[in-house]
Amino acid sequence: MSASSESPNSSGQARSTGGTRSPWRWVPTLYFLQGLPYVFVMSMSGVMYKNFGISNTDMTLFTGSLYLPWVIKPLWSPLVEMLATKRLWTVATQFVIAAALAGVALTLPLPDFFRLSIAALWVMAFVSASHDIAADGLYLLSLEKHEQAAFVGVRSTFYRLANIFCMGGLVTLADQLHKSEGGWVFAWQVVMALLAGSFLLVSLYHWWRLPRPAADRPLPRTERNWPMFLHIFAEFFRKPGLPVILGFLLLYRFPEAQLLKIAVPFLLDPIQVGGLGLTNTELGLVYGTVGLIALTLGGLLGGWAISRVGLKRALWPMVAAMHLPNLVFLAMAWSHPGSLWIVASALAVEQFGYGLGFTAFMMYMVLVSDGPHKTAHYSICTGFMALGMMIPGMWSGWLQDHLGYLNFFGWVLIATIPSVLMASLIRIPENFGRKEPAA
Q1: Cα 59 from Cα 393, distance rounded (Å)
Q2: Could you tell me which residues come within 8 angstroms of residue 85 by beta carbon, excluding any fewer than 6 positions away?
C-alpha cells in the first residue's frame, strides 16, 4: 500500500489526502457495510420472522429491543478514542460481524430458533454498534467540514443501498428459493450465507483501502484512565443548550420509529386484516428497491442542498419533507390500492421525503459532536437517536394490534408534533455545512 500524502486542515490536524484515499474509494463501501447488519436487525429480520409466522407484537418487541446496543454504545465509545486506531477498530469489527451473520443462519433449523436467533442477533448488534463508533470516527477524522457536508448524502445513499441489497435483492431471493424448494428455513439460510459472504468480501477490501489519517491515533498511555474516560462524557453533557439537543435527538424521528417497524407487516399482511397482501417479491420491488432508490435520491439531494445553502436554511424544507409524506401510509390503509405501481409510487414519495429529512438530522449530529473528542461525542448523539427509535419501535406492534392499521397511521401523523416542536428550538450557526466558494 503506498503512503498517502498529508496536509493540515484548519484546526491544525493532518488528514490523509493521497489519491488512493479519495473519499469515493472508501466512504461508499464503508457505509454500505455499516448498513447491512443494521438493516438485517431492524427490517429484514421482521420479514424473516413474518415468514415464520411470528406475531407483530412479538416481532416488534424483540427486534425493537435489539436497538439497545446502539443506545448504550456511548458507554464504551471512549474506549475507541483511547485504545488503538479507528481504522483498526473498524476492520476488526467487520470481520467479527461477518462471522456473526453466518452464525445466525445456523440457528434457523433448530426447534427453538426464535429465541436462539434473537440471541445471535444480540451478539451481532453489539459488535455492529462498536463498528459504527469507529467507522463514524474515521469518517470525521478523514474529511474536512465541507467534505463531510457534501458526503453526508453519499453516506446515506450507500447506507440505503444496503437496504436495497437486503430488502430488495435478498428478500426477493428468499421468496424465490421458498417457492422452488418449499421451505423458508432453507431459503433464509441461503440468504444469510450470501449476506455473510458479501460482508466478508467488502471487509477484505477495507483492510486494504481504508484511509490512515494522521489524526487517527489512540490516546497516549498516560491518558488512558478513568478520569479521561469520564472527562470525555462530561464534555458532552456540558454543551450549551443540552436539553434542546437531547430533545431533538430523541424526538425528531419519533413518528418514523413507529412507522418503520410496522411498514413491512402492513405491506405483507392480508387485506382481510388491513394489510396490502404483498408477497416477498412484491415487497422487495416496491419497498426494498423502488422506495429505497427514492430514499437514496432524497439523501443525495439533501447533502447537495446543505453543502450549497447550509443546514440552517435547509432545515425547515427538510423537516416538512420528512413528515408530510407519511400521509401515503394513511391513504393506503384507507383505500387498499390494488395496483402494485400505485403502492410503489406512494412509497417512493414517502421514502424520497424521508431521505431529505434524515440528511438534516445527520448533519445536526455532526454539528453537536464537533470538538476534540468528536468520535465519542458523535457516538453519544447516535446513542440518543437509537433510544428515540427503540422505545417507540418496541411498543408499535402492540399499539397497531389494538388500533388497527388505519388508526395506527393516523396516530403516526399526530406523533409529528413533538418532532416539529424540537426542530423549532435548535440553534444552528449561519452557513454551517455550506461549502465556502473558492477564493
Answers
A1: 10
A2: 212, 216, 217, 218
Report yes or no on 291 lying in a domain. yes
Domain range enclosing 387: 21-210+231-425
For 236-247, what is each residue's pLDDT tens digit? 888 999 999 999
- For the record, the C-alpha cell of 391 comes out as 422505545
CA distances from 134 to 24, 27, 137 (A): 19, 13, 5
Size of the chain, expressed as the number of residues it contains: 439
pLDDT tens, residue by residue, 181-220: 768 899 999 999 888 998 899 999 998 888 888 777 776 6
All residues at 6 or more sequence positions from 105 whose CB lies less than 8 Å from its CB, including other chains: 188, 189, 192, 193, 196
Residue 244 in contact with residue 425, Cβ under 8 Å? Answer: yes
How many structural domains compose the chain? Answer: 1
Residue 431 forms part of a structural domain: no
CATH of the domain at 352: 1.20.1250.20
For 430, the 3-state DSSP assignment is coil
Cell 413507529 sits at which residue?
Answer: 258
Query: Using alpha carbons only, what angle is made at residue 430 by residues 426 and 435, rounded to the nearest 5 degrees?
Result: 120
149 vs 309: CA distance, rounded Å: 11
Is the CB of residue 397 less than 8 Å from the CB of residue 57?
yes
Predicted TM-score of the model (pTM) = 0.67
**What is the rounded distance in angstroms from the CA atom of residue 353 to the CA atom of residue 373?**
32
Q: Measuring CA to CA, how many Å separate 345 from each of 4, 339, 362?
A: 46, 10, 26
Q: In whole angstroms, give the CA distance from residue 1 to residue 6.
A: 15
117 occurs within a structural domain: yes
